[in-house]
Amino acid sequence: MNDYKVRHLIVMDGDKLRGVISIRDIISEERVISRFAELAETKFLDTEVSGAD
Q1: Which of 40, 39, 4, 6 is closest to 25 using CA atoms?
Q2: Cα(47)–Cα(16) distance, integer angstroms
Q3: Contacts of 26 (CB under 8 A, 6+ apart)
Q4: Please, what is the end-to-end C-alpha distance for the chain in angstroms?
Q5: Using CB atoms within 10 A of its CB, is residue 9 exposed (0-12), middle (13-18) or buried (19+)?
Q6: So where are the chain's domains?
Q7: Is the pTM above the cut of 0.70?
């Protein structure tokens, strides 16, 4: 999106408009997903360590 200076994307379902996504929406989601991945990895590592006994 940055390469082409696109700030908004139209979301379509066939010929129906479903919404608009902004670059800010995508950045926010990326941060949330990254944090969930970090938490999941931490939980997995804690399970592995406690399960090794």
Answers
A1: 6
A2: 46
A3: 1
A4: 49
A5: middle
A6: 27-53
A7: no
CA atoms of 50 and 42, how far apart (whole Å): 12
Show Cβ contacts of residue 12 under 8 Å, excluding neighbours closer than 6 positions. Answer: 18
Q: Fill in the amino acid letter for 36.
A: F
Instruction: Give the span between the Cα atoms of 15 and 30, in whole angstroms.
Output: 28
Secondary structure string (H, E, C) spanning the chain? CCCCCCCEEEEEECCEEEEEEEHHHHHHHHHHHHHHHHHHHHHHHHHHHHHCC
Better-scored residue on pLDDT, 53 or 25:
25
